[in-house]
Amino acid sequence: MTRYVMAIDLRRCVGCQTCTAACKNANATPPGVQWRRVLDMETGEFPDVRRSFVPVACMHCNNPPCEEVCPTSATKKRADGLVTIDYDVCIGCANCVMACPYEARSIVHDVRFAYGDKPIASEAVRFDPARIAVSMKCTFCVERIDLAAQTGQIPGRDPEVTPACVNSCISGAMAFGDIDDPDSKVSRLLAETQHFRMHEELGTEPSVYYIWDKG
Amino acid sequence: MKAKNLKPGDRLAPRQQHNWDWRAASNFIAGGAGGGLLFCAAFASLWGTDVRALLLGGMALIGAGLTCVWFEIGRPWRALNVYRHLATSWMTREAAVAPLVFICGGLALLTGHSIFVLLTGLFGAAFVYAQARILSADKGIPAWRHPRCLPMLVATGFAEGAALVAVASPFVITSAAGQIGVAAVTLLLLLIRVLLWRSYLAGLRADGAPDGSLRALAVVDGQFLMFGNLLPAALLLLAALGAPLVGVALIPAGLIAVGGGWLLKYTLVRRAAFTQGFALKHLPVRGRGTAGAAVKPGWGGAN
């Protein structure tokens, strides 16, 4: 079996938001919507102050609450672990938005462009009316993952079939791959380090691991 | 680490949800009261009461709630897709119960047969339960997923239903004994509602919840107790004790009790609906430093 996961090394992330920009570029998300973003968390009191950067997006949970509540079955979990949305089936009821504890989903009801009512050239080419008034979220760049089946490349190793955010990360904080493959980069990273998953206590079994210390 | 030691950046702490507005809240407000009314009307029919007007009112409330939510969804012309996930989605199940309510209710109105009245009541109760399960399945909103939220929502649905029967009883129940019975049942359901409400609030505080949720619920706590429950309870007690003009007391008591339930549900669905927010079990260890304490900004109560 294949199960794709992401490992994010919090020790390496510098909060540059390059992954945020790369995601917007790759997925042409509308203004105000970020499928991936980096949280900036400042904790403690002077002189013991810490600043942590936490990239967040859809966690592609193994037990996705969004899939359970979706009344249309537009949200599905694939065999490889990716949680997908069928934009042609979704009715935009927002039940999945309420069910997601990671604030990963958005619904945009009106057509929006970066500079007013008219799209700039790149927006005009990439505007997808199917995504209006339905739920949307990070796909782990599913088109790239699916391309791997045709090309024989390996997601997480070959950039053409790896999520855009992972490719763009300047500090190598993000890794992607098959957790069921013991030789994949994510498997090796997770074996060597201490890590946790966000809100594990909710039983969602997210597929994004946050590395916080060496093993 | 306490929230005061955090300087949260954008969207770290729980925030109020804005995807479900008054239209979604109306479905829970009107649908819950309507389902409760159908159940209580079916119950009253066991004593020979003519409940046709009550059935009509219950179906109208459910219909109004569903119409409101139809205007809320992003793709209303695909609304029938809502029936595609009966296996796990309580929203699908709520939608599946609705036509059964209307079919049985329609047959009850047309034929007056008691079996259809009772079936309508049962499906009304199922509608209330399905709505409560919709909220409890939404893990992203801690105030909804708390295990004590579901029984409280079901209880307020039935209490509102009984209160609506109380409002109608001077017109549909002619005997004083019958009206006193309605007052007693409504009083009992209000008592159960209050107990479950207090239990819910205590549970949220004990288990921890977003500060915003706790604040919003605390704001309505006093109003809900005093005006939503104690005042109508006093009026119902007068009626149950057989005071003169019992019917005059039942109408305001029922209306106020229903208003209290609607305030509670509006608050829960809109003002107290804060997201989970973000938390870190461990802060990253950099260089030769040590890991910081876990952080969970914007949460109050035990956590």
From TrEMBL, chain A:
Transmembrane segments: none
Pfam families cross-referenced by the UniProt entry: Fer4_11
InterPro entries cross-referenced by the UniProt entry: 4Fe4S_Fe-S-bd, 4Fe4S_Fe_S_CS, ET_IronSulfur_Cluster-Binding
Keywords linked to the UniProt accession: 4Fe-4S, Iron, Iron-sulfur, Metal-binding
Domain 4Fe-4S ferredoxin-type: 4-34, 49-80, 81-110
Domain of life assignment: Bacteria
Gene3D superfamilies the record matches: 3.30.70.20
Protein name according to UniProt: 4Fe-4S dicluster domain-containing protein
Organism per entry: Aromatoleum diolicum
Automatic annotation (TrEMBL), chain B:
Keywords: Membrane, Transmembrane, Transmembrane helix
InterPro entries: DmsC (IPR007059)
Entry-linked Gene3D superfamilies: Formate dehydrogenase/DMSO reductase domain (1.20.1630.10)
Transmembrane segments: 28-47, 54-73, 96-129, 150-173, 179-196, 216-239, 245-264
Keyword Ligase: no
Lineage top rank: taxon: Bacteria
Keyword Transmembrane helix: yes
Cited PANTHER family: ANAEROBIC DIMETHYL SULFOXIDE REDUCTASE CHAIN C, ANAEROBIC DIMETHYL SULFOXIDE REDUCTASE CHAIN YNFH
Protein name: Phenylacetyl-CoA:acceptor oxidoreductase
